[in-house]
Design brief:
CATH architecture: 3-Layer(aba) Sandwich
CATH class: Alpha Beta
Oligomer: single chain
Strand content: 5-15%
Helix content: 40-55%
Order of helices and strands: HHHEHEHEEHEHEHEHH
Distance between the termini: 42 Å
CATH topology: Rossmann fold
Number of helices: 10
Shape: globular
Structural class: alpha/beta
Strand order of the largest sheet: 4-3-2-1-5-6-7
Radius of gyration: 20 Å
Amino acid sequence: MHAKNYKPRLERSEWEQMWQEHWITPAIQQKKPDVEQQFLSASRAPEVERRRMERIMKEFEMGFSHLHKVGPAVTVFGSARYKEGTPQYKLGVEIGRELAKAGFAVLTGGGPGLMEAANRGAREAGGKSLGCNIILPFEQAPNPYLDEVLDFHYFFTRKVMLVKYSCAYVCLPGGFGTLDEMFEAATLIQCRKIGPFPLILLGCRFWENLRRLFWDLHDAGAISHEDLGFAALLDSPLEAVEVIRQRIPAEVRRRLKPLSD
């Protein structure tokens, strides 16, 4: 069954109100334009852009030099908002633990919440735990369960590292950032720019509305029929790891060194 009779929780008038109050009005009320607004309001001199390119290249070089020997790794995406004690956090710890036990390094965005949970599971199991942290004005500090953390200023350089050095991707519940990362991986796999590598959505109940949305996209002609199964929807971390282990290239699987219990 898909979303033919699905009624959104937020009516269109409420959606418009939220858009005005939280997305448009705060920007209009700013007394001083932020850096991005200044960037769009005037042309930038070539020398300024060259300095920006140098900063970007330094981030790429930093990521490449630190991650090229990480070994078979799986990136776990997930929200920074779920705290210890929630079912989602427990799920994150379990997937990190099972990945480490199977011999995978666990790579996350390095922050709190479900990123921390996955790193914690990997660390406590005795596996490799790494993070690509993003530097933000309001959050986030690296979590304490990282063997190594790389700090990034640019989201896109960070995302390249999270995708480039993994042979599979696990998406725990999350918001804008998690969806962005998930669709980045899905698009690259769909277009055969990477892989094909397994993409797992962990937590079937959370992802059910996304499955419904994809049926609507299909019915509207926006995606092909084969795009409907772009990811495996699972609840069991143990099953997720087994799916990954069976679906990764054979040469990668041979490099795995499972941890002894």
